[in-house]
Amino acid sequence: MKLQLNINKAFPKKSLGQNFIQSKDFILKLSELIQSDIDTNIFEIGPGTGALTDELVKKKFKNLYLIEKDLVLFQKLKKEFKNEKNILVFNSDAIDYNYEDINKNQKSLIVGNLPFNISSQLLINWIVNYNWPPFYSKMILMFQKEVANRIIARHNQKSYSRISVISQARCEIKVLLNAPSNIFFPKPKVDGTVLEFIPTNKYMDINISNLQKILRKSFEHRRKKIKTSLKDYDYLLKRLSIDDGLRAENLTVDDYCKLALAI
Known about the structure:
The chain is of the alpha/beta class.
């Protein structure tokens, strides 16, 4: 089987957070959830040995961009697709890559088994550092289960955090697949979760920097009441009728976005 041969030839690098998916059944399930057409640009983040790529190339798309930081894997992918004009391979860090430069006014999809060590950083980059509405119409991404739980957590839950609010302020999010640790090589200590992100314009007018500032102050000392952590904004709490006796995890996404809008 091609997937197994590829894994035998490639050695995952811990420094890059690489865990290759070695379950063909899982890859097929994931591929079925990725819908595209001839006008869609697909960005695959960290294609690695090409397990998911082998399924993506069978789909309809305008261009398929493979963003691979590992030089050895990049060279293999480059060689494999050198004759395909609409499959472009880049040796780049996904955080530094400028997606908008080649993608203005086009429909795009971001997919990938994200390196667990930078998955949160990548997500925040795509949510915070681009104009809104963004260049993508959907993201389908794999995270460490614990990180995924923080992303989807609701207020009053223990996992609710800054990334919960930022993500939910910008996207409708749902769980697509659970990925048990035994489908990866090498086997990580934790399971993974595939999430779908669809951009929403509900809070389009917020200044994302203001939202980040408020979240940082709120969650930096999350056990403190917001009358202490957000004392600089007590006048806004009163104006918006937000109880200053609450703690950071008690405020809803809507509460935080109203605060950001009011600054």
